[in-house]
Design brief:
230 residues, mainly alpha, two-stranded antiparallel sheet, DNA Binding (I), subunit A, two-stranded antiparallel ribbon
Amino acid sequence: MKICSKCKKMKDESEFHKCSKNKDGLRTTCKECRKIETKEYRSKYREKVLRKKREWYKDTKNKKEERDNNAPKRKICSECGEEKDITEFRARANGGYYGKCRKCENAKNRQYAKKHPDIIKQNRVISEQRRRMQAKEVKSDFTRKEWKTCKEYFNNSCAYCGKKLSSLTQDHFIPLSKGGDYTKENILPACRICNSSKNNTDFYEWYLKNEHFSKERLEKIERYFKSLKE
């Protein structure tokens, strides 16, 4: 047990972040108080925080290849503290991997969505509006018939993980944000989890590291796009 220097409450050591500088290896303030402090700091120095984030992202983006090549095979999750294979962590777009494992990250997201349904709904609306704006600037002629044919080719299953669903989403193989079109040559059926996980990353960069990677499905995707050109 440990007393938080901020709220003065006695809490379990699991309620404190690790800190190698301190004798007990833990921060003096608990996670809850630390969360409040961080939120207040970001609000007070918003522009400074955003500037540093942009600078960090730009610097790491230039070192992406180096960061990927030097990535460890295993990594300790910052949430559960367990050491796991690197494939259990979500890859960052600018190289490297996130601190929380997929399991902990998904649990946190579900918990947040349950507590803040209104915010989640608003974010979805904003995201959809952005996608529509992007779609207006690209070629868009994908038809219902082509969508039906596409789903049938993949046996009404997610092209990435193979999960069979009645309500598959349309994933842009090349993201709209990176010049992809809304055409039959750029749409694949995907479950919501794979669609969200892939987001706007390069397909090969994402899929080769994905936990559901399958050489057979990869070849099927490539054959599908090849058949559309014949």
